[in-house]
Amino acid sequence: MTLQAYQEKAAVCVAGCKQRYAALQANPYLSGGQKLAVHYFTVAMVLFMAQLLFGLLAGLQFIFPSFLYEILDFNVNRMVHINAMVVWMLYGFIGSVYWFLEEESGVPIVGLKWGQLAFWVLTGAVSIVVLVYLLIQIGSGDDTSLWLINEGREYIEAPRWADIGIVVVILIFFYNVAATFSAGKWSGIAGVLTLDLVALAGLYTAGMFYVTNISIDQYWWWWVIHLWVEATWEVLVGCIMAWSLMKLLGVRRQVVQTWLYIEVALMFGSGILGLGHHYFWIGTPEYWFTIGGFFSALEPIPLVAMVVHSIYDSGVHRFKNSNHPALAWVIAHAFGNFLGAGVWGFMHTLPQINLYTHGTQWSASHGHLAFFGAYATINIAFFYLAVQQARGNVWMGSELINGWRWKTAAILLNLGVLGMTVALLIAGYEQSFIERAVEGSTWAGYFAAQNHPWFMQAMIWRMVFGLMTAVGGGLLFWDLLEIGKGEDRPAAVIGDAATAE
Amino acid sequence: MTEQVPRWASETFWKKTAIWVTGGSFVLLVILTFDSMSQITAGGSRVQAYSVINKDVSYRFDKAKQRYQPVIGGDAPLFGKLLSEEEAEKLVDHGKKTVQAKNCMNCHTILGNGAYYAPDLTKAWLDQGWGAKASREELMINFLLDPEKNARTFGSNRKMPNLDITKPEAEAIVAFLKWMSTIDTNGFPHNFTAIGEED
Ligand code: HEM
Ligand code: HEM
Ligand SMILES: [Fe+2]
Prior knowledge:
heterodimer, A: 501 residues, 17 helices, B: 199 residues, alpha+beta, Cytochrome Bc1 Complex, Chain D, domain 2, 2 domains, elongated, binds protoporphyrin IX containing FE, binds fe (ii) ion
């Protein structure tokens, strides 16, 4: 193709986006908060695609180490991979809350203008951060680099200026939420959600300072990472799930809210002190063996309860629901959370085992299944709920037009991640035995394990399933753009009228 | 809906439970955090003062504890320069900042946390891969300055990229690594034979 042909294609593409955007702003089926939510969801999906792309690049470097060497090194690809993940998931959560805020409180969002401004500020900041990651990558060993380029701390690499921006945006989001509930009505979900958001935002500040002492550095770093994913994020998705189950299945409010409180008690009761499972080997005192081992071993309990709850509710309502793709992803969430976080987490959480698995592909195996199973799934479920409404609250039951697409996407994504998880699990076991147990964790031992055919095979299988995941992701993106178009049947009416109160 | 709900299944019961359990756990965590902070401040028995880089360091199996422990020996100043506590802290601090700015942790693990593309750095100072204690400092500096040329990929073909590390930065990183190797990590990594401990 000639340059001109490319330019024409690009022009068509831009015009298409503009048209879609105008249609979104004029969409009669969406409230103000819901339109803002769709903004967040759109960026989330774009970042999800970026996550998959950079995961593939990093994965390939295990097999071809010279691939993109000194152009986009492994550390750059991996940083973009995991940062895109954290940010898209947060975008999804924020969007979900904006989505149901008005319905849950019964009033229009207070200060919506500020929320809209915050979205654009955040998205601008995220774009700059990513460009700097890709183009500048690293700096010299001084404060300027940590403030402007990257902080070099896994998952929260964003430079300090961006940290501050993120906090400001989160404060605006929090103001929208708290002020709207105050103006309307406070429900049980509203109360839990609001307090949880305070904790979630507060924890982020635990990762915003520099210390020389690496033990203290890691101590607070885990406050952010662990107390996010194993406490505050779990409760946040608990709120989103509670609302979705009422919406999707027509479960009574009293039932979901009681469950939500049980969830909070079990999740915080085990997860807060379960933090200790990261304090075995970073210089911290020995009592964390007992505390961390014991409480983290209890963490699967709420996850089991969650499976029971959602399956029970689905069964009681005979799986009659208004949105098949969303319910499928809610079920994927219940099982994924239980398997990835509960089972995979439990398997390496006792110090006697963690001594050998700590910092091997074992952690990566768990990390993939847990983040996908617990958080990618619930976000995707919500995207389907949103798209249904955006298309005019249309039918999303059986015999959908092009229904193969959401099913294929769901199958490829779930099988792909499961396949990667198993491949990494094998690599992790191999590392634990050969590098750790046999070779004694020296550098020579590390490479003995990395060069072993079992490890190399696992890396190849990870790529095969990674490609499957990426194809599923692309299909999901396409499906969300198209599903429900041309559908003129209205959505199925479900549940008893008690949903509202 | 007016059916009788037993107290243990009621919304208010669980609401109260959730509040108390969360509050209680958090208070305990805060107390434990104060204690842990006091125990891992540099200069204690678990995390050494920065001037420990003036000393010889090793890692041995402790029969009583049944696990590996760092062992601090006699004088062995890094780069032959005896540093005051203040100077040592400044050097280690520069090393830590460089480790962050160069994004080491997205290839390596440090204290076992980070990425799994390159070996753990917790005991990098003590790794047998440096051959002998006498040549270790020079080898480490040369490697950091030009990892491509000095690559020892152990047959993996994985090479560390050139990160534009300057000489002072390289020295600071080595100081940071030496200091880190003295942290009492409760026996992680296990079964590790340190340089100079081979029999
Ligand atoms: C949805 C919830 C969860 C998510 C998203 C998650 C994710 C992760 C990730 C990404 C890591 C690796 C961190 C790193 O890069 O160093 C990790 C580590 C770990 N997780 Fe989870 N996790 C979850 C729940 C759990 C649960 C419930 C348990 C225990 C029952 C658990 C046990 C562990 C342990 C022991 C480690 C440390 C691994 C090591 O020593 O290297 N996780 N988790
Ligand atoms: C296209 C598919 C994917 C590929 C090829 C891929 C590849 C990778 C690679 C190579 C790493 C670095 C591991 C290391 O340091 O050795 C990584 C880390 C990670 N990826 Fe993926 N990934 C993919 C999809 C995903 C998905 C869908 C999720 C979750 C939603 C995810 C979550 C993570 C997490 C949490 C880590 C950090 C793990 C840890 O530190 O323990 N990845 N991925
Ligand atoms: Fe954890």
